[in-house]
Amino acid sequence: MKIYFSPASPYVRKCLVVAHELGLADRIEKLPAAANPVTRDQTVVASNPLGKVPTFLTDDNEALYDSRVICEYLDAEAGGKLFPREGSARWQALTQQSLGDGLLDAALLARYETALRPAELRWEGWIKGQMEKLASSLARIEQQADSLGDRVDIGTITFGCALGYLDFRYADYGWRASYPKTAAWFDRFNARPSMQATLPHA
């Protein structure tokens, strides 16, 4: 198995955390990629017309994308451990995955506006809107933090990767002070070997 990889991508990290938790990480080859929303990596485009990472290649050379599909594929390969199969636990985990992914989407869009868009073209209202999504997402996670406990599933993994991305790219945001229950949960979860093995870097 192979994955087009960027060491800074929180979505790639989510897939790799899942792989580590399932004992599959050593079976996945990391392929370097230079995915960018403006200048696309044509090597990635050949497998994924969206040109995004993560893009995953199975042992049969079938291309899978995006992180949600890849994570579920890996879980199926390992016999189904991180995606609850039925009932309220399934819908809770999937909804938490969506919330964590949505937080990441907003964080990335705000970052693109400042890191990639020329200064004279930046839209402050856009940045403000994305940062409001961050705040409301964190507020919802804070409401749920006491119930997360020691759960390890696709919901908590996505939360962990999203919060890790804030630490990585938004070090001055100071989210811990406003969301102390979330911070306490994250500090415990982030100590997991799977999280430590996949820490992002530029």
From TrEMBL:
Q: Where is the GST N-terminal domain?
A: 1-82
List all membrane-crossing ranges.
none
For the keyword Transferase, the answer is yes
Does this UniProt record's set of keywords contain Transferase? yes
Which Pfam families does the protein's record reference? GST_C_2 (PF13410), GST_N_2 (PF13409)
Q: Which Gene Ontology terms of cellular component type are present? A: cytoplasm
Q: Which UniProt keywords apply?
A: Transferase
One annotated GO molecular function is:
transferase activity
Which superkingdom heads the taxonomic lineage of this protein's source? Bacteria
What is the protein name stated in its UniProt record? Glutathione S-transferase
